[in-house]
Amino acid sequence: MGLNQPSQLRRDPISGQPVFVAPSRFARPGGGLSAYQQANGSKAKKAACAEPVEEGTCPFCPGEEHQTPPAILESLALSKEHNGSRGWQVRVVPNKYPAVRPSQGEFLEGHSETLGGPYFLQEGEGEHEVVIETPRHVRSVTECSQEELAQVFWVYTQRLQELRKQQRWQQSVVFKNVGRMAGASLAHSHSQILSLPEMPPQLQMEQIGAEKYYKNYGKCGFCEVLAFEEQAEQRWISATDRFVAYCPFASRYPGEICILPREHASHFEFLPQEQTGELAELVKAVIRGIERKFGEVAYNWVIHSGPFDTWEQKHYHWHIEIIPRLAQTIAGFELGGGMTLNALAPETAAALLREQMSCQVSNVNSS
Fold it and tell me: Using CA atoms, how far apart are residues 338 and 129, in angstroms rounded to an integer?
C-alpha cells in the first residue's frame, strides 16, 4: 500500500473493530516513524527506556527480594549462580502497587453503592501479580535465552491454571510493558497478570465477534484468518511448525503483530510445556526483528485467552498481541471518535519485519 494511496476503512473480521489505514500521514512531521527516524540513538533509547535502576538496588534483582511482597511462585534457576547454589529463575509476587485488590468486604459481593444522582461505586476487586522473568538485570526478552523465555511462558500457564481453580475470577490478562512509553516503571524484564471477576470490555467484544463469526460460517474466525494470511503472504511475518506471526489486516497500531498457534486452542493455560520453547523462539525472533529495524523501542504484549468459566471454545483462539510503540497513536480523533487511525499499513510493516527475520539464523521460517 503506497504512501499516496487514499485512506481505507478496515474492520477486524472477528471483533468488528473499525480502523482507518491512512498511509499518506506516514510522512507528515511527527507522524508514522519519523519521530524515531529523526532522533539520534541516545534520544530514541532514552524515550524508550523505563526509569533506570542500578543493578543491586533493583527490587527485582536477586538479593533484593525483601523489597517485594513474598513470592507466590518461584521456579528453580536454570543454572547454578556464582555461589554454586541454584536460586530462582522466574519469580511471581503480588504487585506492590496493585490496580485492583481482593475484596476487602467494603461492598456486598456483586453489588454497587449509590453516591447519589446517576453515580454508582463498586469495589475494584481483583488480583494483580508481577512476573519477574529473569534474575538477570536485562531490559528486553531478546537478552534472554530461548530456554529462559520458555520458562516464563510455562510460569504463565501455571499461574493461570491456579487462578482458574480459585473460581473467583472470570478472566486473567497477561501483559508486558517494556519502556517508559509502554507504561513500564522499572527496566528489569517483567510482566504482569491482572485477574478480574468479569471480562474486560475489549475481550468481551472479541468473544462476541468470534461467536458471531462461528454462528454465521461454522468455523473459527481466527483459524480462517490464519489460513488466509499464510496463503496471501502480504501481512505474513514468520512461522514455526506450531506458531505463526502476522500483522492483522485491521491493525490498530503501527507494527501491530499477532502470534497464535496453528492448531485450534482457546485457552493459553493449557499450552503444553513442550511447546513453550517453540513459542519462545518465535516471540523472541519477532521482537528482535522489531529492535533491529526500529531500534530499542518500547513495546507491549498482551495474551488474549478464553475466560475461566469455559473450557475449550470452538469459536475462540488464544493469541498474543505485540504492539511496538513506534509513534504517538492517540490524538483527538482517537479520543473523541473511539476509532484508531494507523499511519503504517500492515502490509508495509510486515514487509519491513520480514526483511529483518530473513537475516536471523534460526528455525523460524519467514517465507
Answer: 29
